Amino acid sequence: MSKRVDIKTGFLCNNNCLFCVQGANKNKGNRQKEDIFIDLKKAKETGCIGVVFTGGEVSIRNDLFDLLNYAKKLNFVTIQVQTNARRFYYKEFCEKAVEAGMTEFAPALHGHTPELHEYLTRSKGSFNQVVQAIKNIKLLNIPIVTNTVVLKPNFRFIPQIAKLLISLDVDQFQFAYVHAMGNAHENFDNMVPRVSLAAPYIHKGLQLGIDAGKKVMAEAMPYCVMKGYENYVSELYIPETEIRGTGKYTPNFTLTRKNEGKIKFSQCKECIYDSICEGPWKEYSEKYGSDEFRPIKSK
Ligand code: SF4
Prior knowledge:
- By secondary structure, this protein is of the alpha/beta class.
- It has helices spanning 33-45, 64-73, 91-100, 114-121, 126-138, 158-167, 183-186, 188-191, 195-211, 253-261, 282-288; strands at 4-8, 50-54, 78-83, 104-107, 145-150, 172-177, 215-219, 241-244.
- It has a single domain, classed as Aldolase class I (TIM Barrel, Alpha-Beta Barrel).
- Helix 1 (33-45) runs parallel beside helix 2 and helix 6 (158-167) runs parallel beside helix 9.
- It is globular.
- Bound molecules: iron/sulfur cluster.
- Residues 222-224, 264-265, 267-268, 271, 273-274, 277, 279, 293, 295-296 line the site of iron/sulfur cluster.
- Iron/sulfur cluster binds next to loops.
């Protein structure tokens, strides 16, 4: 798999999601363009061939097109923008972003209705904006890979969200189990569902995508809660990634995620997936324990 760099461009955002992992980091503001240029050059030197611009919200920067252009000049093969997609509501903005160098569009959609999505983003009009953004980008023929965070208020609607994404003809969709940091940690009781309750809905959403010929996956879902869908665990497909722009360089995010972010349990030693499974986010088990994660003894 090809190596990529995730560049955090800063922390400002025009949404205010109830589950945002950045939480109080928002006060740190956005980074200087020149510093991001340096990061891009360094990432080239370490052999990255893909770049993911992420935030905060990168599209509210007035210099987004400069960043894309610079990444294009450095010959990154894939240039992805992870975004809440609100500014991509405007067709001209989409055209300019693709012209500047964006090769992959990665919007976030957390509900199948304005009420649900906007309850979670706390931003009126954001549902219509992301839906229109997907329609706009479709016309520009670059891949659309979406992310939906699995939360207490939306998990029962994951199949409906999948249906919406299929009707919008996105290329790939992912359901990412909420990571209880930042606002999601503050709002834990209202935001973090039990994985055993959410899993059947996630499986149904994945199946709808599979039947429609879409590439689908679920993140931060250990194999023991993905029975029948073991091949759709995102961690199997996430490329080697370095992270720049958080204040501390992370040369191998897979290792950091495994060693510092996730947790395994004593019963995992009896599980056939022990060697490849990362386990759930550790904040999940700090609150809910480990009973839902039962070792798989045979396939
Ligand atoms: S029992 Fe442990 S090793 Fe096995 S799938 Fe579950 S979390 Fe992973």
